[in-house]
Specification:
- By secondary structure, the protein is α/β, with parallel strands linked by helices.
- The protein has 22 helices and 19 strands.
- α18 (about 435-440) links the parallel β16 (about 430-435) and β17 (about 455-460).
- Bound molecules: ligand S1T and magnesium ion.
């Protein structure tokens, strides 16, 4: 076995099912070994941001590690924004970067792609990763690889491996599996007991689930926990799509003033709000009508549990969920818990009712049309960019979702959709603004080669509309009307330009029925139109930020 092979085996053993990448001379030996060994399939894309977003979405959608392989300097540094997003949103993304060989570093010449020093790149990635190693010694490599990859999984954050170009074919031993350290059993027990006592004492407990539940593969166990607790469940903004298929009293997504006001009131008035793996950020909480006093909540996040003024460090979410389940009877005895009987939200068809007509299109029509499609043909996963498309996704019922809801980088949607389909085999619906499509939409040209045929809905409002909502008089938010539908054929897909509800419904039906080629629906939106959720969000932000 050589170093590249033991690395690839170790990635595979930790859930990776493919490598996304773009080679370069410092990475050619690594790519050669990836292709030759055929341990994991390699999917090359056009631009490193796309590589990073695809690998990120692959990890989010299937669990386990995502892998992005790039060359030193221009390639790796082009990937930084995607790695930053993965760090912020808790994705175990592994960066494999080629690098100069040790003997080259001693040549006295500046090497191409070098920035300030040969270590500049290492320092940049140090800020964005939880562990890293330079694999310049085949003896030490197995232990380094194990440590770094296991850190990515344990902490659900990115890591960085630098592979000098003389290393990939060097003989190397297999990478060991390391067992995750167990939490202190007494601390875990005390934490679980206190948590349940607080919930039992609450008159209005609510469980809010966030991204960690997905990242640590806990959806089923948390659904069981919700059933046993019998308290209402909501998702955070970032957690939208979680428990979509589970049989739990799921009320919907908490969006503060931007969302369902009854649901928001339940969350804000809860005296036992359990935040299970929720990123406590402004996108999740800034637009609350009544500021949630976070000291009164129970926060399970990033390996620790905080409630009131007590903090239990070193309690991973998975261990906590197991400890809670062990303490709760499979069926809660009547009266043991303040069971608020809440019917689970079911797709009501309420958002699907828009009759096909010739009226101008708004974002809400896209949600209605997608809901109608999913109701008829069954659920499909969504990959969304940032922009009004993500707010529109909040009105699409019961579909799994990958989106950069907190870090909010544009350019995520299209490559994420490819990553999702490669990793799970499921055909996605991609929601993307025209501005974001201009950044990374061209990755669709790689769809056929990657075996992908997503349905892409471009919210074409000729504008950076979300920015216009905050800066209505500026002219710099105008983008002009690009004909994205016409570009699809040149990239190997089919384009459909639609301007009415009737066109949209027909194009979606055709797109759904056509497999094997990506389907781009270029939705010509009336300028100035916002989804109802974004309109409420903007109003709330303006109101809350206005001087008192
Ligand atoms: N650059 C990148 C990489 N990410 C960003 N989020 C931004 C800039 C700032 C930004 C937004 S929203 C937005 C920009 C430029 C406009 C998006 O335009 P488009 O994709 O057409 O969607 P829509 O017209 O629906 O707004 C954020 C959130 O800061
Ligand atoms: Mg736009």
């Amino acid at each position: 076995m050589n170093l590249a092979e033991s690395l690839l085996q170790a990635l595979k053993a930790r859930g990776a099912t493919e490598v996304f990448g773009i080679p370069g001379d410092f990475a050619l030996p690594l790519f050669r070994e990836i292709e030759r060994s055929a341990l994991l399939p390699l999917f090359t894309l056009s631009h490193e941001p796309g590589v990073g977003f695809a690998a990120d979405a692959a990890a989010r959608a299937r669990g386990g590690l995502g892998v992005a392989a790039v060359t030193y300097g221009a390639g790796a540094i082009n990937l930084l924004n995607a790695v930053a997003g993965a760090y912020a949103e808790r994705v175990p993304l592994v960066v494999l970067s080629g690098a100069p060989a040790s003997h080259e570093a001693g040549s006295g010449l500046l090497l191409h792609h070098q920035v300030k020093t040969l270590d500049s790149q290492w320092h940049l990635f140090a800020e964005l990763t939880v562990d890293r190693a330079r694999l310049d010694d085949p003896q030490r490599a197995p232990e380094q690889i194990a440590r770094v990859l296991d850190a990515a999984l344990a902490r659900s954050r990115p890591v960085y491996l630098e592979i000098p170009r003389d290393m990939p074919a060097r003989p190397c031993a297999a990478v060991p599996m390391t067992a995750a350290p167990l939490p202190d059993p007494e601390r875990l027990a005390a934490c679980a007991d206190e948590l349940l006592a607080r919930l039992a004492a609450a008159a209005r407990p609510v469980l809010m689930v966030g991204v960690e539940v997905r990242r640590y593969g806990l959806e089923e166990r948390v659904a069981e926990l919700a059933r046993r607790l019998g308290c209402p469940v909501v998702t955070s903004f970032m957690g939208r799509g979680l428990l979509a298929q589970a049989d739990v009293p799921l009320l919907g997504t908490y969006l503060g003033l931007a969302g369902d006001l009854d649901l928001s009131a339940r969350v804000e008035q809860s005296d036992g709000l359990l935040l299970m793996g929720v990123i406590v950020s402004d996108t999740n909480f800034a637009v609350s009508a009544k500021r949630i006093d976070l000291r009164q909540t129970i926060k399970v996040y990033d390996g620790s549990v905080a409630m009131g003024h007590h903090v239990y460090p070193g309690v991973p979410i998975a261990a906590l969920v197991d400890a809670l389940l062990a303490r709760l009877p499979a069926t809660a005895p009547a009266g043991a818990w303040p069971r608020t009987s809440m019917p689970a939200a079911t797709p009501t068809g309420e958002n699907t009712a828009a009759p096909a007509s010739s009226a101008a299109l708004g974002p809400a029509d896209i949600a209605a049309a997608v809901n109608a499609l999913l109701l008829e043909h069954g659920s499909m996963p969504l990959a969304s960019d940032i922009g009004d498309c993500l707010f529109t996704a909040m009105d699409i019922d019961h579909a799994a979702l990958v989106a950069p809801g907190y870090y909010a980088t544009m350019g995520y949607g299209v490559p994420a959709g490819l990553g999702l389909q490669v990793a799970t085999g499921q055909r996605p619906i991609i929601l993307v603004g025209d501005g974001a499509f201009q950044m990374t939409g061209w990755e669709l040209g790689n769809a056929a080669r990657c075996g992908c045929d997503p349905i892409v809905l471009v919210f074409n409002n000729a504008s950076w509309e979300m920015l216009r909502a905050f800066e209505p008089t500026a002219r710099f938010n105008d983008l002009g009307r690009w004909d994205f539908a016409a570009m699809a054929a040149g990239m190997g897909g089919d384009g459909h330009a639609v301007a009415t509800r009737a066109d949209l419904a027909a194009a979606l039906a055709t797109a759904h029925a056509t497999r094997g080629r990506f389907q781009l629906i270029d939705v010509r939106l009336a300028p100035g139109g916002l989804s109802p959720t974004l309109a409420r969000y903007v109003q709330a932000v303006k109101r809350l930020s206005a001087p008192a």
